Amino acid sequence: MTAPLDFVPLWTLILGFGVFMYVLMDGFDLGVGILFRRAPGDAARDIMMNSVAPIWDGNETWLVLGGVALLAAFPLAFAIILPAVYFPILVMLMSLIFRGIAFELRFKAAPSARHRWDAAFHYGSLVATLAQGFVLGAFVQGFRVEGRFFAGTWLIMKTEGTLQDWARRQARWLLVGVLLAMAAVSLWTPFLQPKIMARWFSWPNIALLSPVPIVTVWLALWLWRAIDRRAEFLPFLGTIALFTMGYVGLAISLWPNIVPHSISLWDAAASPRSQAFLLVGTLFLLPVIVGYTAWSYWVFRGKVRAGGGYH
Fold first, then answer.
1. How crowded is residue 169: how many other Cβ atoms within 10 Å of its Cβ?
2. pLDDT tens by residue, 233-272
3. Separation CA 111–CA 294 (nearest Å)
4. Which of 34, 109, 121, 249 gives 102 a disulfide partner, CB atoms 3.0 to 4.6 angstroms apart?
5. Is residue 310 part of a domain?
6. pLDDT, tens digit, for every residue of 37-78?
7. Residue 92 placed within a domain
């Protein structure tokens, strides 16, 4: 009798890819909202909102995919993680709904009432980001989402003139904050569990994994120079690469556990038949999500200028 196929590695890739895409894409989206109240004037706020208006709701698709993949493929992990972080997830979802309403109603509101929807967009983004930080902090103590830095480099790429200069100044300070947070997490995480300490600092792991911090430091220096040289696309590309290295480091620390630091992916997985049944639909659906996401970013590529909104 042949052994059933092991679908856990494939479902791990699907779940990891869904979470990665959501945190990546919604990072600059939420970051724009956090920086919104500090923008230099109402015209700049219009441009900032228009820069993410065509794509913000599509970014939430990855959140749904990640949640469904966790429920379907790793039901034990879902049953343990969700009750532990139920309240911050509820707050996050309510905040996302609140900022979504602000997106639509801000452009329809009278000028005298627009400041209320500005506040709703800003605080909805801020509270959603904080709630995600609580969720991820509970998952692995100290990990944070650095959405504001994403927003700075996104605005460098999507805007011009005074607003772009302002975004460059914000990006420099936020890069320093991101690097300090990454350094603190990198130094603290190995002390959470002896297994994590051994994974990073035992021989030969320390030699095999050393490219991760080395590449991260190199990316940080390259990114700082790209901002100083007034590059437009490269800072955002560098931000994606920097986030990717942080994500890889987190995955290395936690592998093979899905519930830190006790339940592995294989222990939490659904039966092979259930995984195979769900995989059929997922392999059809995932290319569609990737395709329309790429198409929406392609259609709305280029600079966003005053008076050129999508509403």
1. 11
2. 888 888 888 888 888 888 888 787 777 767 778 877 888 8
3. 34
4. 121
5. no
6. 888 877 888 888 888 877 777 777 888 888 888 887 888 887
7. yes
